[in-house]
Amino acid sequence: GGAVRDALLGHTHLDWDLATSATPPEVMRIFKRTVPVGLAFGTVGVLDRHELMHEVTTFRHDVTTDGRHAEVQFGASLDEDLARRDFTINAIAYDPQTGELRDPFRGRKDLGEGLVRCVGDAEQRMKEDRLRALRALRFAARFGFAIDPATWKAICNSAPHLGRLSGERVKQEIEKTMEQVARPSVAFARWREAGALGALVSHLGEAPGERFAALDGLPMPGLAGRPQRKVLRLAMLFFGDDRRAAEPALKALKFSNADTAWIVRLGDARARLGAAVDAAMLRSGGATDAELRRWAADVGRTAAASWWRLNAALWSARRASGAAAPTASAVRSTHRRLVRIAYRDPMAIADLRVDGEDLVAAGVRQGPEIGSTLKRLLEVVIEDPAANRRETLLALAVEGQKKL
Predict the structure, then answer these.
(1) pTM exceeds cut of 0.90
(2) DSSP string, 209-262
């Protein structure tokens, strides 16, 4: 499977699966410490002396499938088991005892030619599991491979049926693309060309092309996993969408509440502030400290750096396309200023040197007016942090009270 494929390509693979003629009960008798991972599908987890679990699956062939789930039957040969795999490059087996490499479908040849090709009849492979269309696009982008014409046709023919996939499975495939593919724009361009993007996430089917190009400018999480990098790439897909547009799409894809809130926060801030930020960064002298304070206050102190990285990737994509964008050096220097300001200057009501009790003691009427006064004082302090002194703020509060 994938581990053999990656080994032949000289890539690191962290997960080796094993296939055997032994049935699940036989595997569980042979090994002392096992986990019934998926007995109906012939898979048993075997724990080694280092507590690492290896999945051991019985040779099998499909009896029936509905495009999402397969009913399998044991008693198959190794070649029959390989015949049910999706692509030739994944239908290669290696025996570590004998050194034999079993490759009945010329997977090594396709690896050498840089080709993603279905095992056997491509249309049938896609009907058996519609997720294979998305996997083909990911493998092609990950390895820089072409897609066999018959396989590409089957992928395009699958697009109208991809709605059968659950939100969780689509989410997992998007996440794997972000984790494994250095240039996700290539993968999503194929998603769009095949009709998969519009069929699965109609909202993203209409997204500006620069967002997908900007993905390539964000660091790759890699197989070892850097979750914040992955979430940053995911956020770019929705960067510039307001809450009403992004939130339902993310929930339909079954993203966690935490990830949804973070992605929506970053995208919604771009929707509201993007035009002003672009204009400020393009003018001579760039953004002022007061503007950076207002933006950091709006997006939130802890989100400001991530939000700026997304803006930077978007501007990088624009520069590459010849569109107007701030220089890379201006973006970097402003990023440093933004982070320094976000953690140094007051930008939340909690940062004010006065609170509601102070305002009541100064004569401000209790009730909604306390909150509105604190917000007004915060606006003053964001414009000029030097005004964040108790006596200055109380004087401003009293003055505002007299005008009412």
Answers:
(1) no
(2) HHHHHHHTTSPP--TT--HHHHHHHHHHHTTT--HHHHHHHHHHTT--HHHHHH
